[in-house]
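Input record, target 12 of the design panel.
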């Protein structure tokens, strides 16, 4: 957690000189959606939900930086054994690059690339018909995706994102999240 805070501070320090001479906007948002397990997670877990929040710093001429906090919950496929849900908490920062911007209506399509800390709860997984318990861990992870946003009013935007997440570790854990929500422009 301390490392993530240090990374966020570093991004702000790097972005500050750019923001002194550029037009800057800042927004906060809340979102929710669907989480789908992939690869080895798909063997043991059903799709679930995600909820989260986002801060976005848009520096005209330099791009957009974001910080994202989300909670993902996946239910086990085997309900007979009373297995535990897998809960994943993500705290990440990244760069958002517009693919194109429809200036007349201020809508945009963008790509995201980020990295951060992913925390998984203790969960059960299967291998050759045997179930084992995986301990709760915190690992570094990366994510990337595509999204779009369009204005609802002068200070409110709808934002939708599709992200592929990889938690790095002894066995890489991957999942896809689809989310939508509202961003409020503060400056």
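The sequence produced for target 12 reads:
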């Amino acid at each position: 957690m301390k490392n993530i805070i240090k990374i966020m501070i570093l991004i702000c320090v790097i972005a500050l000189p750019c923001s002194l001479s550029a037009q800057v906007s800042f927004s906060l948002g809340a979102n929710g959606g669907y989480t789908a397990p992939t690869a080895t997670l798909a063997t043991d877990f059903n799709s679930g939900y995600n909820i989260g929040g986002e801060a976005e710093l848009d520096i005209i001429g330099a791009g957009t930086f974001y910080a994202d906090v989300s909670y993902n919950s996946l239910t086990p496929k085997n309900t007979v054994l009373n297995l535990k849900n897998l809960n994943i908490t993500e705290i990440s920062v990244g760069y958002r690059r517009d693919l194109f911007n429809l200036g007349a209506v201020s809508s945009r399509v963008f790509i995201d690339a980020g990295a951060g800390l992913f925390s998984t709860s203790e969960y059960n997984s299967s291998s050759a018909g045997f179930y084992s318990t995986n301990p709760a861990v915190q690992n570094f992870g990366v994510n990337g995706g595509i999204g779009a946003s369009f204005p609802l009013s002068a200070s409110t935007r709808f934002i939708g994102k599709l992200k592929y997440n990889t938690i790095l570790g002894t066995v890489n854990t991957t999942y896809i999240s689809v989310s939508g929500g509202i961003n409020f422009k503060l400056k």
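The first strand starts at residue 24 and ends at 37.
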